[in-house]
Design brief:
By secondary structure, the chain is α/β, with parallel strands linked by helices. It has a single domain, classed as 5-stranded Propeller (L-arginine/glycine Amidinotransferase, Chain A). 29% of the residues lie in helices and 26% in strands. It is built from 8 helices and 15 strands. The strands form 5 sheets. It has a 3-stranded mixed beta sheet with strand order 1-15-14. It has a 3-stranded mixed beta sheet with strand order 2-3-4. Helix 5 links the parallel strand 9 and strand 10. The radius of gyration is 15 Å and the shape is globular.
């Protein structure tokens, strides 16, 4: 199932929410209609929260079915909210926008190539998957330019063949290049998705919608 939406006038809805197969964390001031679309399209329970005192939950949190990683700037209350639902690790690194810098599903993860080895090892431990440092289309913020589920992955339209092959190898799903929100390359910022459905920024064109549907295997 796919739905179009926006958050407070912003079509980059992936900045404000993150989901796995059963759960979504959504900015605490999200409109009821936005929350309803995520619940219906993804078939998840939603939990409203802030992260590091802000509403950019999708940029600061990444998760799969095994665990979650949150910004190291998160306060104790925010970490407690996340931990009630899924194992949680605050990211103690200068690059603490976990949602932007990490791309993960239940099979594997790509992480920013700017992370040091001990950080990558900690990320691998909490997510329970192999983590590979990389860039996609010259971007170290791999989570902001790709979106992966357990059924597929969509990525920056300028990703090279070698980068697409790496995504396929690590995430163990098919990969399709596309844009979102009428040409935006920040694919991860424009989509909230799991294997059951997706909510997409409402500036997304019909052609982009078709590619997102194909890439994420939402038939």
């Amino acid at each position: 199932m796919m739905r179009l939406s926006r958050y407070g006038g912003n079509p980059n809805i992936g900045v404000f929410a993150v989901a796995n197969e059963s759960l979504a964390f959504v900015a605490s001031d999200a409109p009821a209609d936005f929350v309803k679309k995520i619940e219906e399209a993804l078939g998840v329970k939603t939990v409203l929260t802030t992260m590091a005192g802000s509403y950019v939950v999708g940029s600061l949190v990444v998760m799969n079915s095994n665990g979650s990683i949150v910004s190291g700037l998160a306060d104790g209350r925010e970490v407690s909210i996340i931990s009630e639902h899924i194992p949680c690790m605050p990211l103690d690194d200068q690059l603490n926008a976990a949602g932007n810098n990490i791309l993960a599903n239940d099979n594997g993860a790509l992480v920013s190539d700017l992370y040091e080895a001990p950080v990558i090892e900690a990320i691998s431990d909490i997510l329970g998957v192999e983590c590979v440092p990389a860039r996609i289309a010259g971007c170290s913020t791999v989570g902001s330019v790709c979106k992966a589920t357990n059924k597929g992955c969509i990525c920056h339209p300028d990703a090279s063949d070698e980068e697409v092959d790496l995504l396929k190898s690590v995430l163990k799903v098919d990969v399709l290049r596309t844009s979102v929100n009428h040409g935006s390359r920040a694919v991860g910022a424009g989509v909230v998705a799991n294997s059951k459905g997706a909510v997409v920024g409402d500036d997304t064109t019909p052609i982009e919608m078709g590619k997102i549907e194909d890439g994420l295997g939402l038939y």
